[in-house]
């Protein structure tokens, strides 16, 4: 689903590659035993190793290895039984050792793929080049003093997985879908909590433009985008910026940029004076990481049902569309909620009501499904009333609103407000007769060919019945009576 | 390989060590001499020879994921030339 | 007075027999240090109060019949080991005022076994050097002097302070570290014993890192037995050091039987180049003869890549040190130089320029260069491959022999006024010791003879990986046979 940009000189294709940094959920850090707990006092989660003190040495966390392998397995990637930790050397205040322990030539995970569920039901494959483990850096706080920066090393040394995609994405939509899917995958397996606001998942986007079929253009890197929404905006802005430059005769400078969410624009980071020469070499404090095939196989067995597998299962078992299934498997919590509904109610009805009505209202309230005031059981209660014809779908929407407002159950509300659908054909016929009697001229007009007036009669009947008449019955009976 | 002052300037920059013009020339001379001497390794046939990754047969040990360290803010900043609110204080970083 | 000339094992026995107390022992050494150190400059920091406290504790333990392997024994610590709340400088200006809030594993082991800390010993800055001349705290005077001369001589390096202190009876034992010969060469220059164990035997945790794949801690002592006792205390697997060998520590002292009948001793021809000092040659030949007389079999071997070892070392070690020393940046500890109106980078550049000495800066720059883009393959990668070949030479040789005998250093101690015409000349001091380091093997130096100037020359024995027992026993037998009694005047 490419999204061409319409420039002055024709269509432009956007080429996007994403580098995602995901903090691995663990108790302690990648190479030290300090805590990773968010929100502690500055430098409280810091061992002398993290602080880069003289004589300190790294010791690797077994959980970090586990989560990297599991993530690799979850994206069908090649797991490298031998990998090497390298030092990436550069100077920065939040990098106490003066180097970051990372993996350069021999990462723990090789090529894999992420499958995107596009809105039109199609599946797009985005390649992943590699995943490697590396240390996160500390935090520089610039806002407290005009002349000084304050350095907090709590985050220094936390485990990061860097997940590098192939430049396979062709639109901001695809990039957003990739990020969402990747996030779902790491959340499913418990490797990362995917909380972009807190910064446990960050995204760098490499964006370039080209004429379709042409050579790759010069790319710019947009660093540290921390929401899917911002990613989408940043890519669209950046691609447009590049097209405008090229079309007005300019050249793209390869540079690193930041997304200014307030202005909705990307801007250059003050240009780094020298291109970085990281002087990678294998860290002599760490031997190569060796894992066995048995270890990998055991982890593979331990993987939970992954989003794609679950999506397939929902499509087969519940007859859902690819897109609907894709939305529901997007979060474990959605899937759990859905399965509760689908266990007792029509799966398609459940899917529609969940992803349409429920999600819409939750979004308006700014509330997550885990905090939904309407439980799966409660929503199921409402679905049940639709399924046994107690209320119409239209009324059900109002009932749902009232459920949100009052916290009462669907049946309680229906009883209280007397919203039971009228299905008794006799009663409906009476109402129809009344309407027809009250509008003889319109009846005559309809019978003489003005078909459009049918809607008028339906409206009147519904109005007179207080919205409670079963629409299907009304349609049938009206047709009969008006003919 | 003979280095000139410019090359030394680049290296010194990467290593974040300030060198004067005079020192640059001096280091250029000394380092060139050393590099020329170590380049004798070019004589050695190393086709098919692996890099020595470790001198011992030790395997990389893995640590259990439990918190065994940290919670010592005071000790961490104790030797700092400048600290405040538990943080290290440095001149403004230009970004 | 005579207390200070006792060996470690004699002190240990004397304390147990209550012939003297730990407090007396510490006091005697501290008094001597007070007198001698101002001129010798072996100690950077003297921890008098701490020493007396520790000695008192030791006496209390000994009175109860308790105590560790070296209870009450005074120890000097090379100022490269981080000692909690005690100034640790690595002999560098850049660590001004640094008092670690943690203790190195090796020194922890020493204190746990009852060692008493006399102070921190001088060294070449960041362990880079073979003469102790690069120290920010000034050079160290070797207690030995040339016959009829008062000119000061270097004690060797980088553990110059450690070797000088032991040779001058300022402490019976000292901790050193060895990266390319920094324990063995000073031991040779000072007429005493120094051993670098197999890489991985001693933990590197808390030792200021110079070259991570080469650094090893080791003891500097008056005789082989004392070294064995010290290794019993210092060695051991440490979970905090990922390169630490998960291997049990045997009783090294128990291995000293003196019986080396049938042991095969290799003599590598590459260590005897044309132009070798004839006195060193003679000492070596004498060592060979004595080992033969003790029942060992002498076998000629070849270590073909020996001549490339120094070049290999002077690529690998600077590369690793350029990265290890990046943390000295004025942010979290030590010296900070803040130029007016400067930013963070200005602070880095000024601090490191002022804080590091010339030799250290040179090695950082070489290291930075050989790792930089475009040069990594030709230098670092190439060097690590040649290193494999050097290690392989030893592996092949050790299929035929149990230990290898060579001289330790190409000369005796040289004068303070020795100014090499170029840095490479100074590096040649390490020619006999570096190959052992590159291969990670254990190596020991013991005094072989006095030269015509009355200065000590050392013999080196190299052992199989993790066979310190075998190595120490051959060294012990050789030591007995040589019967070296030299002492600085």
What does this structure look like?
Chain A has 483 residues and is an alpha+beta fold. Chain A folds into three domains: 294 residues, no CATH class; 112 residues, no CATH class; 58 residues, Arc Repressor Mutant, subunit A. Chain A contains 15 helices and 17 strands. In chain A, helix 7 crosses helix 8. The radius of gyration of chain A is 29 Å and the shape is elongated. In chain A, 45% of the residues are buried. Chain B is an alpha+beta fold and 95 residues long. Chain B has a domain of 38 residues: Histone, subunit A (Orthogonal Bundle), CATH 1.10.20. In chain B, 35% of the residues lie in helices and 9% in strands. Chain B has three helices and three strands, in the order ααβαββ. A two-stranded antiparallel sheet of chain B has the order 2-3. In chain B, a hairpin with a 2-residue loop joins strand 2 and strand 3. In chain B, helix 1 packs across helix 2. Chain B is flat. Chain B starts with a helix and ends with a strand. The model of chain B has no long low-confidence stretch (mean pLDDT 92). Chain C is α/β, with parallel strands linked by helices. In chain C, 37% of the residues lie in helices and 13% in strands. Chain C contains 15 helices and eleven strands. Chain C has an eleven-stranded mixed β-sheet with strand order 1-3-2-4-6-5-10-11-9-7-8, sandwiched between helices. In chain C, a hairpin with a 5-residue loop joins strand 10 and strand 11. Chains in contact: A-B, A-C, B-C. Chains B and C meet through helix 1, helix 2, helix 3 and strand 3 of B and helix 9, helix 10, helix 11 and helix 12 of C.
Describe this protein with a few key phrases:
heterotrimer; A: 483 residues; alpha+beta; 3 domains; nine-stranded mixed β-sheet; three-stranded antiparallel β-sheet; 17 strands; 40% helix; elongated; C: 489 residues; alpha/beta; eleven-stranded mixed β-sheet
Blueprint (SSEs and pairs):
The complex is a heterotrimer of chains A (483), B (95) and C (489).
Chain A: E1 5-7, E2 10-23, E3 60-61, H1 62-74, E4 82-83, E5 86-89, E6 99-102, E7 112-117, E8 123-135, E9 139-141, E10 148-152, E11 159-165, H2 172-189, E12 201-210, E13 220-225, H3 228-247, E14 256-260, E15 265-268, E16 281-282, E17 289-290, H4 293-302, H5 307-318, H6 322-329, H7 332-344, H8 347-365, H9 376-387, H10 393-406, H11 410-416, H12 425-438, H13 440-447, H14 454-464, H15 471-482
Parallel strand pairs in A: 13-14
Antiparallel strand pairs in A: 1-2, 2-11, 2-12, 4-17, 5-6, 5-16, 7-8, 8-11, 9-10, 12-13, 14-15
Helix pairs in contact in A: 2-3, 5-6, 7-8, 7-9, 9-10, 12-14, 12-15, 14-15
Chain B: H1 5-14, H2 21-38, E1 62-63, H3 73-77, E2 83-84, E3 87-91
Antiparallel strand pairs in B: 2-3
Chain C: H1 8-16, H2 22-40, E1 43-46, H3 48-63, E2 74-78, H4 105-112, E3 116-121, H5 160-167, E4 173-178, H6 184-189, E5 193-196, E6 216-221, H7 224-234, E7 264-268, H8 278-293, E8 297-301, H9 309-324, H10 344-355, H11 358-371, H12 377-397, E9 403-407, H13 423-427, H14 434-439, E10 443-450, E11 456-463, H15 468-482
Parallel strand pairs in C: 2-3, 2-4, 7-8, 7-9
Antiparallel strand pairs in C: 1-3, 4-6, 5-6, 5-10, 9-11, 10-11
Helix pairs in contact in C: 2-3, 9-11, 9-12
């Amino acid at each position: 689903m490419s999204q061409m940009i319409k420039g002055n000189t024709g269509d432009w294709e956007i080429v996007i590659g994403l580098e995602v940094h995901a903090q691995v959920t663990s108790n302690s850090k990648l190479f030290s035993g300090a805590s990773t707990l968010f929100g502690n006092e500055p430098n409280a989660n810091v061992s002398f190793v993290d602080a880069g003190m003289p004589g300190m040495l790294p010791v690797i966390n077994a959980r970090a290895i586990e989560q990297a392998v599991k993530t690799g397995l979850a994206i069908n990637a090649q797991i490298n039984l031998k990998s090497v930790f390298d030092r990436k050397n550069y100077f920065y205040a939040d990098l106490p050792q003066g180097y970051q322990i990372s993996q350069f030539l021999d990462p723990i995970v090789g090529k894999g793929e992420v499958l995107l569920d596009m809105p039109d039901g199609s599946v797009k494959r985005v390649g992943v080049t590699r995943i490697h483990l590396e240390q996160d850096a500390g935090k520089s706080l610039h806002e407290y003093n005009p002349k000084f920066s304050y350095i907090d090393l709590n985050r220094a040394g936390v485990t990061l997985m860097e997940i590098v995609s192939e430049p396979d994405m062709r639109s901001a939509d695809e990039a957003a879908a990739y990020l969402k899917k990747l996030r779902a995958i790491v959340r499913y397996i418990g490797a990362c909590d995917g909380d972009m606001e807190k910064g446990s998942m960050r995204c760098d986007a490499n964006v370039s433009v080209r004429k379709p079929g042409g050579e790759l253009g010069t790319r710019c890197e947009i660093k540290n985008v921390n929401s899917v929404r911002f990613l989408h905006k940043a890519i669209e802005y950046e691609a447009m910026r590049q097209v405008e430059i090229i079309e007005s005769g300019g050249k793209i400078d390869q540079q690193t940029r930041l997304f200014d969410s307030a202005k909705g624009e990307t801007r250059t980071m003050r240009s780094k004076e020298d291109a970085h020469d990281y002087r990678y070499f294998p860290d002599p404090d760490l031997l190569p990481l060796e894992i066995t095939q048995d270890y990998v196989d055991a982890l593979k067995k331990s993987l939970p049902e992954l989003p794609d597998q679950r999506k397939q299962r929902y499509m087969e078992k519940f007859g859902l569309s690819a897109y609907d299934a894709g939305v529901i498997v997007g979060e474990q919590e959605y899937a759990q909620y859905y399965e509760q509904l689908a266990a007792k109610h029509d799966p398609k009805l459940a899917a529609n009501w969940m992803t349409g009505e429920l999600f819409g209202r939750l979004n308006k309230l700014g509330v997550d499904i885990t905090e939904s005031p309407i439980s799966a059981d409660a929503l199921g209660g409402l679905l049940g009333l639709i399924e046994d014809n107690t209320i119409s779908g239209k009324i059900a929407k109002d009932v749902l609103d009232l459920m949100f407002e009052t916290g009462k159950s669907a049946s309680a509300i229906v009883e209280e407000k007397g919203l039971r659908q009228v299905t008794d054909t006799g009663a409906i016929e009476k109402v129809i007769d009344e309407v027809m009697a009250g509008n003889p001229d319109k009846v005559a007009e309809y019978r003489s060919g003005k078909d459009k007036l049918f809607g008028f009669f339906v409206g009147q009947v519904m109005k007179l019945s207080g919205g409670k008449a079963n629409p299907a019955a009304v349609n049938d009976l009206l047709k009969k009576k008006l003919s | 390989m003979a280095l000139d002052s410019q090359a030394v300037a680049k290296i010194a920059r990467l290593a974040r060590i300030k060198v004067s013009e005079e020192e640059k020339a001096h280091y250029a001379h000394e380092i060139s001499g050393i590099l020329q001497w170590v380049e004798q390794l070019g004589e050695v046939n190393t086709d098919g020879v692996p890099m020595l990754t470790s001198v011992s047969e030790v395997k990389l040990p893995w640590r259990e994921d439990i918190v065994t360290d940290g919670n010592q803010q005071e000790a961490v900043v104790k030797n700092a030339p400048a600290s405040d609110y538990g943080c290290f204080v440095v001149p403004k970083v230009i970004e | 007075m005579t207390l200070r000339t006792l060996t470690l094992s004699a002190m240990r026995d004397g304390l147990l027999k209550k012939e003297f107390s730990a407090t007396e022992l510490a006091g005697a050494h501290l008094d001597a240090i007070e007198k001698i150190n101002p001129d010798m400059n072996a100690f950077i920091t003297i921890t008098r109060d701490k020493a007396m406290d520790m000695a008192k504790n030791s006496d209390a333990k000994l009175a109860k019949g308790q105590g560790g392997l070296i209870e009450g024994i005074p120890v000097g610590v090379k100022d490269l080991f981080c000692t909690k709340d005690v100034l640790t400088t690595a002999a560098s200006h850049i660590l001004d005022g640094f008092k670690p809030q943690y203790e190195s594993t090796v020194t922890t082991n020493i204190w746990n076994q009852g060692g008493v800390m006399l102070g921190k010993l001088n060294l070449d800055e960041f362990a880079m050097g073979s003469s102790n001349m690069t120290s920010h705290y000034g050079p160290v005077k070797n207690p030995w002097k040339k016959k009829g001369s008062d000119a000061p001589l270097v004690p060797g390096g980088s553990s110059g302070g450690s070797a000088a202190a032991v040779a001058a009876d300022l402490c019976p034992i000292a901790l050193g570290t060895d990266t390319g010969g920094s324990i063995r060469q000073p031991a040779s220059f000072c007429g005493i014993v120094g051993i670098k164990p197999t890489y991985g035997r001693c933990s590197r945790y808390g030792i200021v890192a110079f070259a991570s794949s080469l650094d090893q801690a080791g003891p500097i002592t008056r005789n082989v037995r004392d070294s064995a006792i010290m290794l019993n205390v210092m060695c051991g697997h440490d979970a905090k050091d990922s390169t630490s060998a998960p291997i049990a520590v045997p009783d090294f002292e128990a291995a000293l039987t003196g019986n080396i009948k049938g042991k095969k001793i290799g003599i590598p021809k590459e260590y005897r180049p044309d132009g070798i000092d004839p006195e060193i040659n003679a000492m070596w030949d004498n060592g060979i003869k004595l080992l033969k007389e003790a029942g060992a079999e002498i076998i000629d071997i070849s270590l073909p890549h020996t001549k490339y070892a120094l070049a290999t070392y002077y690529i690998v070690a600077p590369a690793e040190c350029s990265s290890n020393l990046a943390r000295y940046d004025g942010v979290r500890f030590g010296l900070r130089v803040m130029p007016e109106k400067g930013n963070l980078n200005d602070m880095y550049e000024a601090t490191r320029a002022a804080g590091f000495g010339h030799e250290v800066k040179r090695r950082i720059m070489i290291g930075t260069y050989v790792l930089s883009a475009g040069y990594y393959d030709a230098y670092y990668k190439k060097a690590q491959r040649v290193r494999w070949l050097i290690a392989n030479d030893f592996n092949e040789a050790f299929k035929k022999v149990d230990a290898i005998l060579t001289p330790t250093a190409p000369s005796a101690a040289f004068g303070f006024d020795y100014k090499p015409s170029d840095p490479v000349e100074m590096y040649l001091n390490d020619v006999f010791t570096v190959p052992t380091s590159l291969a990670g093997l254990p190596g020991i130096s013991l005094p072989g003879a006095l030269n015509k100037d009355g200065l000590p020359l050392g013999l080196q024995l190299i052992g199989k990986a993790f066979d310190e027992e075998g190595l120490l026993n051959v060294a012990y037998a050789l030591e007995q046979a040589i019967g070296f009694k030299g002492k600085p005047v």
